[in-house]
Write a structure and sequence with these properties.
The protein is an alpha/beta fold and 327 residues long. It contains eleven helices and eleven strands. Helix 2 (30-46) packs antiparallel against helix 4. The protein is globular and about 60 Å long.
Length: 327
């Protein structure tokens, strides 16, 4: 099935159903929230007689300025409903345990399609973000769909965060053209960027601590373990602790980064990033996945940290030995 045929099938399903429930992945980022909220806002404008719900079971403190999701609806509302999952690669990462109650499921995602799901699946893993796909969906069917400043703001938020402010490799001319289209709706980017990127004093102190305590392997893998003691020291939520990965990405010669974050349930969340080389194979070895250069995994023993660091260092060494042009 072609891209246009898949998109048409999704639009036909949206038109067919009177109840539409939208959800996203656990531990949501800007793209997850932007795509789910943006799609919901677009559909409410376009089909005011339909029931449109955003239903998730966790939230983001970092993106709380975008407002709360809808109140939880009873199980009975799932009966005969269409459920759309955005920005979520696998069923186990959906932030909604009632997926099976819906009549049909649609997947809209930009991650590598390792574990397909859904009655209809639209996956484009070359896209900068799921929000780029939602905006492209609007542009393709703008004779049927409507957008306004609120919906455009949600979508632009995910577009700009998942593309690293249009710096990551997946950014294309289409990404920038879509960004321009969204800005034409009058988005207040000064306020949006202030909410996204200004940091409070305590977070900056944590950043300084990270830079002072990060580690580097002999081949140029940078890593940090944000353990519970460090989290207590800076009164961090696990979401704030996870931001440590963003402080490790700008060291010349270091083309891969790992941040290990102790979670309340005893597991260890791993955030993996790289430049030039792909690193998702390392995440997949440890039960995770994601994009080629931006991915994650979960460990269940501190012994696995050392093993993952060693495997990551070997991956960097192999890449540097067989490639030129990295910094």
């Amino acid at each position: 099935m072609t891209q246009k045929e898949t998109m048409q099938q999704i639009l036909d399903k949206i038109i067919e159903y009177d109840k539409i429930i939208i959800t996203r992945h656990v531990r949501p980022d800007g793209d997850a929230i932007g795509s789910s909220r943006g799609l919901a806002a677009m559909l409410r404008l376009s089909f005011p007689d339909k029931k449109i719900y955003v239903q998730t079971e966790d939230k983001s403190d970092y993106l709380a300025f975008l407002g709360p999701d809808d109140e939880m609806i009873p199980d009975s509302e799932y009966d005969g409903a269409l459920l759309i999952v955005t920005d979520t690669a696998t069923l186990d990462r959906i932030s909604n345990s009632r997926v099976d109650l819906a009549k049909e499921v649609i997947k809209i995602d930009h991650h590598i399609n390792i574990k397909p799901y859904g009655d209809v699946s639209w996956v484009e893993d070359w896209r900068s973000s799921c929000c780029e796909m939602i905006a492209f969906f609007y542009e393709t069917f703008r004779d049927v769909l409507k957008l306004d400043k609120e919906a455009a703001t949600y979508i632009y938020c995910g577009l700009v965060t998942d593309s690293g402010r249009f710096r990551y490799e997946a950014t294309t001319g289409d990404t920038l053209r879509i960004g321009g289209m969204l800005l034409d709706f009058g988005i207040d980017i000064e306020t949006l960027y202030a909410q996204l990127y200004l940091e409070d004093y305590a977070q900056l102190k944590f950043q300084a601590y990270v830079l002072d305590h990060m580690n580097m392997t002999k081949n140029g893998l940078v890593y940090l373990h944000v353990d519970k003691r460090m989290q207590r020291k800076f009164a961090l939520t696990t979401e704030q602790a996870s931001e440590a990965i963003s402080y490790l990405k700008f060291i010349k010669g270091c083309i891969a980064q790992l941040a290990f974050i102790d979670m309340p349930d005893g597991s260890i969340r791993v955030r993996l990033r790289s430049r030039f080389m792909t690193i998702n194979e390392l995440a997949e070895k440890y039960g995770g996945g994601g994009h080629q250069c931006t991915c994650g995994a979960t460990l269940h023993s501190k012994k696995d940290i050392a093993a993952m660091i060693a495997d990551g260092d070997a991956l960097v060494a192999k890449y540097k030995a067989n490639n030129e042009g990295w910094l």
